[in-house]
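Today's session is about reading a structure prediction critically. Students often jump straight to the picture, but the first step is always the sequence itself: look for stretches that repeat, for charged clusters, for runs of hydrophobic residues. Only then move on to the predicted structure, which in these notes is written as discrete structure tokens rather than atom positions. Here is the chain we will use throughout the hour.
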Amino acid sequence: MSIETTVHLNFRDTAREALEFYRSVFGGQVVAFTYAQAQDVEHPADADRVAWGEVRTGAGFHVMAYDVRENQTHDAGDRPFFVSVRGTDTEELTGYWKGLSEGATVMTDLGPAGWAPLYGMLRDRFGVIWTLDIAA
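Below is the predicted structure for this chain, in token form.
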């Protein structure tokens, strides 16, 4: 038996856009099903929202996302979680940083840190906080 941990992001009306953006940064393929495709529409506003979606790459990147239903509350909060991308290749990690930085608020510039040769933190244009680092 094996186990895998995957970050699941919750949005309101921007899940597909966010998944496409993450695909543009990390590669891979977007798979997304709407509530209408799943035949699970409880409110007309939900029909075109993403009921289940993901981006997965051959290199191991995997993130899931969906749009919260109309009848459910959604508050992304200030810092409910961070998505951590840890690697061993500075050039590859820097490329991800550049992609995620588009429209982002940089919280900690990408550079050396006391615990890692390279570390940075940003809030992307969808409000998701990402930390990227090279494993020490």
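Discussion point for the tutorial: Helices lie at 15-26, 90-101.
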